[in-house]
Amino acid sequence: MPEDSEPPQRHAAIIGFGLMGCDIAAIFLAGGWRVTAVEPDRANWPARLDRVALSLSQLGAAPARVDALDLVAALEDVGFNDAEAVIEAVPERLDLKRQVFAALDRLVPAGIPVASNASGFRITDIAEGCATRDRMANLHFFLPAHLVPGVEVVKGEHTEDTACERLAAIMADLGRVPIRVARDVPGFLANRIQHAMVREAFNALDEGLASPEDVDKAVRFTFGMRIMGAGPILQKELAGLETQLAAQATIYPSLCNRSTPGPTITRLVEAGKLGAKTGEGFWEWTPESAKAARERYERMLLAALELLRREG
């Protein structure tokens, strides 16, 4: 190779190019990678490219990096031979994910890790019947993927450690925070912790303990701020474990341990009141107010991300 030539760009393939796929692509593009993404509906391509350009700008990368993105309509058009990672981000349907993985099992050369971004389905179930399931893992990003640095690397029942190690190393190289999850359980790690909190939050509404506004204030302006500085284990370590033990003994008996969704959220969903997307949930929404709320949310995440970067 001549001295003045540049090394070839590393290549990632993303299968499925909705909001999550676009933001995952932006992470790789911002890190200098070349990305091939599969979006069967060509009519969606302009909007998808606009989203990637916006996400790149939020990451402080040149929107022109979108030129390193190659959109194709079919899996067979990807060119997997030089890919270092393949990430599936199709809609959350087990039958669809299994169909995609069956094709990737056949099309992706051996040794290249294949990951799903499923948020609920286990990689063990998605990769069922695949001959190369030992190189298949879950790589779980959190919306908005380009602004939330944590990424779970979940080992399936048949996944080899080397596949997880390679995916974790790629994420770390891209400035993400890989979170290793040793067993393939529903919800993985972060969502299990989050849903325990959310169950209690919604139970507070069910019992009339507080309004939606005050529930959100209680989280955002108390332990939500503390958790950003130190996770729950370290925070309690710093405060003193004996204090935590005493609090557990007092509070745990009265906590919600419902094994099914509560009545308030069930009633809203059954009425078609799904939140901002339908114009009504706990609050009433217009397209303008929903857009403003999302923009404010992303500004807060960007500010938090910058603070986390400064603190290492």
UniProtKB/TrEMBL annotation:
GO terms for molecular function: 3-hydroxybutyryl-CoA dehydrogenase activity; NAD+ binding. GO terms for biological process: fatty acid beta-oxidation. The keyword Transmembrane helix applies. InterPro entries: 3-OHacyl-CoA_DH (IPR022694), 3-OHacyl-CoA_DH_NAD-bd (IPR006176), 3HC_DH_C (IPR006108), 6-PGluconate_DH-like_C_sf (IPR008927), 6PGD_dom2 (IPR013328), NAD(P)-bd_dom_sf (IPR036291). Keywords: Membrane, Oxidoreductase, Transmembrane, Transmembrane helix. Pfam families: 3HCDH, 3HCDH_N. The chain crosses the membrane at residues 12-33. Residues 187-285 form the 3-hydroxyacyl-CoA dehydrogenase C-terminal domain. The record marks 140 as: Important for catalytic activity. Residues 12-184 form the 3-hydroxyacyl-CoA dehydrogenase NAD binding domain. This is 3-hydroxyacyl-CoA dehydrogenase. It comes from Roseicella frigidaeris.
